[in-house]
Amino acid sequence: MYKKILVPIAMDQLEHGESVLNIAEKLIDEGGEIVLLNVIEDLNAYAQGYMIVDFPLEMIEESRRHATKTLEALKTKHGINGRVEIRTGGAAGTINALANEENADLVIIASHRPGLIDYFIGSTASRVVSHCPCAVLVDR
User: Fold this and answer.
1) Mean pLDDT of the chain, nearest integer
2) 3-state secondary structure of 134
3) For residue 98, which phi and psi values (nearest 5 degrees)?
4) Nearest-10 crossing angle of helices 57-78, 14-27
5) Contact of 106 with 134, CB cutoff 8 Å
6) pTM as predicted
7) Nearest in space to 90 (alpha carbons), one of 14, 39, 17
8) pLDDT reported for residue 124
9) Is residue 121 predicted with pLDDT exceeding 50?
């Protein structure tokens, strides 16, 4: 059904990521590509105006290594045709930008039940649905 599916996976929500990956496997065309994405939040951007925080580069690099290793293992476990992308930035904007850059046919994103914080800043899934250049499937 789809030639290119983007699957964003948060490292703290791997069980949801695996569920979303199972859906992607069922919807991908034969010979299609699944792009597993992890976005490392740019926490320094959030700190502006509120407090000064400087996260060590080693911490960011360790997060990149961990995400790459974890997503490569998931890709191998599921035997999917695809690749891993690790990006830094705001989650929703980065997901939407990569969907556009890759000419993705579909983004499949996990969503959680909203908590109090989501009412103040909005959920990533909501922002992806609102601004994504392609179809979005939200798994709850």
Assistant:
1) 87
2) coil
3) -70, -40
4) 40
5) yes
6) 0.86
7) 39
8) 87
9) no
Who's near 39: CB < 8 A, 6+ residues apart?
Answer: 8, 10, 87, 88, 89, 90, 91, 94, 95
With 70 as the cut, is the pLDDT of residue 77 above it?
A: yes
| pLDDT surpasses 80 at 45 | no
- DSSP code per residue over 11-64: GGGHHHHHHHHHHHHHHEEEEEEEEEEEEEE-HHHHHTTT------HHHHHHHH
What one-letter code names the amino acid at 55? Answer: F
Question: Above 50 in pLDDT, residue 39?
Answer: yes
Neighbouring C-beta atoms of residue 36, cutoff 10 Å: 27
| Identity of the amino acid at 106 | L
The pLDDT score that the predictor gives to residue 54 is 59
140 vs 109: CA distance, rounded Å: 9
Distance CA 7, CA 134 (A): 13
Tokens of 130: 């609102």
Task: Please return the burial class of 136, using the count of CB atoms within 10 Å of its CB with bins 0-12, 13-18 and 19+.
Answer: buried
